[in-house]
Give the backbone structure.
Amino acid sequence: MVVPVLVAAVAAVVVSAVWYTVFGRVWAELSAAGAAARPSPWRMGAEFGRTLALVVVFAVLAAATSWPVLGLAVLVWAGFPVIILAGSVLHERVPVRLAALHAGDWLVKIVVVALVLGGWR
């Protein structure tokens, strides 16, 4: 199960990088982090670590349930990142557009993870 997890993590990082490249102008308008030119190497490593943790958790959940992987992806997305991002809008005054941008990234990332891991089932 190590190879599918690593492939899913790499795929998710790549898809996320593409997401923020496509929506970079919007991200730069809404966030100082988005206005930065390029992430530093340590941030890129940390992002890979975060994504690897997501993939491991998703793989464990997928193995423990009979849910279809895409259904599980939507459930995980709605139950965790969307709730956290909604809280940031509600309590920290994060702009709705910024939270929506991040929510879209999370959805695409989790769907990619589900498709890669589901392909190895």
User: Anything to note?
Assistant: The chain is about 85% helix and 0% strand.
